[in-house]
Amino acid sequence: MDLSAIDPVILIASLMVASTPILLAATGELIVEKSGVLNLGVEGMMITGAICGFAASVQTGSPALGFLAAMVGGAALSMIFGLLTQVLMSNQVATGLALTLFGLGLSALIGQGYAGMKPPPTRPLDLGVLSDLPVIGKIVFSHDAMVYVSLALVALVWAFLRYTRAGLILRAVGESHEAAHALGYKVVRIRLMAIGFGGAMAGLGGAYLSLIRVPQWTEGMTAGAGWIALALVVFASWRPWRLLLGAYLFGGITVLQLNLQAAGVAVPAEFLSATPYLVTILVLVLMSADRSRAALHAPADLGKTFHASS
Amino acid sequence: MTALLKVEGLTKAYPGVVANDHVSFEIAEGEVHALLGENGAGKSTLVKMIYGLVQPDSGRMTLRGAPYAPPEPSAARRAGVAMVFQHFSLFDALSVAENIALGMETPPPMRRLAGQIREVSETYGLPLNPDRLVGDLSAGERQRVEIIRCLLQDPRVLIMDEPTSVLTPQEVDILFATLRKLAAEGTAILYISHKLEEIRALCDRATILRLGRVVESCTPHEKTAAELAEMMVGAKLATPSRAGSAPGAPVLEVSGLSLPSANPFGTSLRDITFTVRAGEILGIGGVAGNGQDELLDAISGEAPVAPDTVRLHGQAIGALGPSLRRRIAVLAAPEERLGHAAAPDMSLTENAMLTAAIRQGLATRGFLKWPAARAFAEKVIDAFDVRTPGPGNAARSLSGGNLQKFVIGREVLQRPEVLVVNQPTWGVDASAAASIRQSLLDLAEAGTAVVVISQDLDELMEISDRFAALNEGRLSAPRPAKGLSLEEIGLMMGGAHGMEVAHVAE
């Protein structure tokens, strides 16, 4: 085994790339859950976004149009969920699970002709002098635009929830839909918008996988990233900056275990591959050990069906 | 006096029931106007129409002479109509200032709003800190949040839906002082309540509703409370009575009971001690959210506690779960009828099976005896005059009062040694409430130790032998109920909860 083969600079730089898809999807789901809706279909929306983005950018030759198509695809799928749960008042857990299965099947269907193709490349941003800085330049300023978009998104979501009236209304709807309704807020409309945003962000995260991180199309390529995103929202106790921390922690362990495998550590590769998931479970258990504190930040009406009955 | 708000022939029908049938009344500037009626008389529907939450089928309203038909609450708020809800429309996890901002049409930036909240709260003698989380506030303080939210919008008409049901007598005094000051400034107040003494003390005029119609309108302080009650119910009311016999040996002893709450905004029980004797009714008062639910859970066995802290006939039972406690005749009827006391979508027979299986022998070796359960459910229905087509109906289909009679009856007929009930007559009409109270008195007469937890002080004074109050999870020392003054009770309940009594600037 040769641990000196692991270059910490490259390790940190690649953990940012590895974390970006789940960070995008988790930020979307954070908004959805803050509005009081539990959408378990993140995995399905991610993979749909992955293939929509892949197909669109192969057809047009433009990665930007690909990302746009991924957002539209993810949002469109989420609207099925929105219609079923908000208008027809179906059970959110069952519908979300079904959405994941549906998304996996749909993406396999769309993706039939695309296996083995190469998408148009996305270049790292040229940040001039910054990219040439020693160490820092390599770690922070040598990525593609989407990495910075995901960071900006976390900041925007944080500011939106904390400082804007719209963010306050969103939180209020998730906290008590009855009270929000009594004050005259349109609970269903607000939730549908949140669900659509969540779908678009999950689609974007999926497209980041198929267009930049991997980059190619294979069936089921999200491989559980959507579920990790869901777990991250709980891990972060519904707070955006903690979400960033959690995503980078998970990404870091993923990259590290890959490096350890490459370095030939005397632990079976299966165990190493499982570590990010084991760590996620462990952290979730620790987080929820103090029940009343965890419940303080959770939206009180999360996953409850709303029916305006007055 | 000219009418500020005029309501003419307002009608609203729901499937199977006419909630409001040509309701008309008017309210003048600076007038405190009471809407009186039993549950289901249509008071709530009426104010929801005035506040724009529900659209009337027919009829019209005028505000200051102009037609008024708000399509949604924000339109009502713009027109100067504000409402304080019965079940607070507040968000526990948000701060006071955030809650207030949510109820305003065009809130100022947070920092200015906080200043305005302090200013208004001082003017009206309602101290409140804008930065606190609403979940940490007492019921009285929560109501202040709602009132200040309304006041900041300078309302012309203020609707108060059952505002005093959650307040201590001292807090009621503060509220009334605020309302009188508002009325003196020209605000019209529409006051909904079924507390007759309060209406007599506060209101200038009253409109009485029965089954969706206006049956009478009067000047409340010219009538006695009994006369008002008869107008509301449309019949004479029988007051519960008991023979009165000396209590027997101690049955239930609770000593040093502490229980941390399972819910972030719940109340932990702290060092609770009391004894209930055979044939005695212990009334436990207190404002909602001071540990009532937790106390019931601890006695019923839903929340296991240290074995020694709860004893039945001297035997430690604190660690036993609900089924084992039922076996030894410690029974309970929790406050929430749908979802806690009864499973909403199950039939009355199934609901009877759920709590009575052990004591009534409705199951043998894990197999259920449905005919016996059905017979028991029918017995409850007969004995307690539950109005339902039959025991096969779902619990959800019963009205609140009928389901409450069933839930209480189901426990009473199981011959309990100890019965704990929480809010036995909450949301129940006057005649059903009287019959439920009578059944509790009869049960005590037969030698059961009864604990009645309630927020209705009149009820507790009527039926209990001794009275104690819960305040922030602590129980005051029980005192004989006879001869307790309202003020003493208020102090046992925690007075005005650390707030000085308002000094309202005249």
TrEMBL record, chain A:
Record membrane topology: Multi-pass membrane protein
PANTHER family noted in UniProt: ABC TRANSPORTER PERMEASE PROTEIN, SUGAR ABC TRANSPORTER INTEGRAL MEMBRANE PROTEIN-RELATED
Protein name: Nucleoside ABC transporter membrane protein
GO cellular component terms given for this protein: plasma membrane
Organism (species): Rhodovulum visakhapatnamense
Keywords: Cell membrane, Membrane, Transmembrane, Transmembrane helix
InterPro entries named among the record's database cross-references: ABC_transp_permease
Lineage, top ranks: Bacteria, Pseudomonadati, Pseudomonadota, Alphaproteobacteria, Rhodobacterales
Any Pfam family matching the protein: BPD_transp_2
Subcellular location: Cell membrane
Residue intervals passing through the bilayer: 6-25, 37-58, 64-84, 96-115, 135-161, 192-211, 217-236, 243-260, 266-287
GO molecular function: transmembrane transporter activity
Xref: CDD domains: TM_PBP1_transp_TpRbsC_like (cd06580)
From TrEMBL, chain B:
SUPFAM superfamilies xref list: P-loop containing nucleoside triphosphate hydrolases (SSF52540)
InterPro entries referenced in this protein's UniProt entry, alphabetically: AAA+_ATPase, ABC_carbohydrate_import_ATPase, ABC_transporter-like_ATP-bd, ABC_transporter-like_CS, P-loop_NTPase
The keyword Repeat is assigned to this record: yes
Record-annotated ABC transporter domain positions: 5-236, 252-497
Keywords: ATP-binding, Cell membrane, Membrane, Nucleotide-binding, Repeat, Sugar transport, Translocase, Transport
Cellular component GO terms, alphabetical: plasma membrane
Location in the cell: Cell membrane
Record-level Gene Ontology MF annotations: ATP binding; ATP hydrolysis activity
Tree of life domain: Bacteria
Membrane disposition: Peripheral membrane protein
Protein name: Nucleoside ABC transporter ATP-binding protein
Source organism of this protein record: Rhodovulum visakhapatnamense
Lineage of the organism: Bacteria, Pseudomonadati, Pseudomonadota, Alphaproteobacteria, Rhodobacterales
